[in-house]
Amino acid sequence: MEDINLFLAHAVELEREAARRYEELAESMKALGSEEVAKFFSQMASFSRMHLEQAMARGGFHQLPVLKPEEYQWPEGSSPEQFGWAGVDAMIDVKGALLLALEGETRSRDFYSTISDETHDPEVKAMAKEFAEEESGHVLQLEKWMARQA
User: Fold this and answer.
1) pTM, 2 dp
2) Are 87 and 114 within 8 A, CB to CB?
3) Which of 20, 39, 64, 107 has the fewest CB atoms within 10 Å, i.e. is most exposed?
């Protein structure tokens, strides 16, 4: 990905999807009676919304394109936060919810890392690297939560 505007459009959509996913997971965990995990997922939704706002702000001097679904350059055809996501199953347990979140964050980290490694645009490279590092932090948090469930 060699265009900062295109990169930011992807980042905005990815974070928008992540926030929605975490909100769904939080509601599911509340219904399950797991308030601690619900609170964690709500916090992660807030982080995703914050990252969404940051991506939009960083595009302040850029004109972010409005892309049709088929214009996104997602690996495997869909956003890393959406890949394999059919919504939260009513029977999902805490471990399953954490695993879904971990898979999404891992794919997002890998998406940004790949862009950082492959782009020739220095602005895209720096921003993708920074976003990959943020996603790595989320992966670590989720791995800690997973370990608590073992």
Assistant:
1) 0.84
2) no
3) 39
Contact 26, 45 (CB under 8 A): yes
Q: Note the pLDDT tens digit of each residue in 55-92.
A: 878 766 456 667 787 777 777 766 777 645 555 666 78
DSSP symbols for 70-119: GG---GGGS-TTTTT-----TT--HHHHHHHHHHHHHHHHHHHHHHHHH-
Tell me the residue length of the chain: 150
- Residues 100 and 25 sit within 8 Å (Cβ to Cβ): yes
Instruction: For residues 101 and 49, give the distance between their C-alpha atoms in angstroms, rounded to a whole number.
Output: 15
- Are the C-beta atoms of 51 and 19 separated by less than 8 Å? no
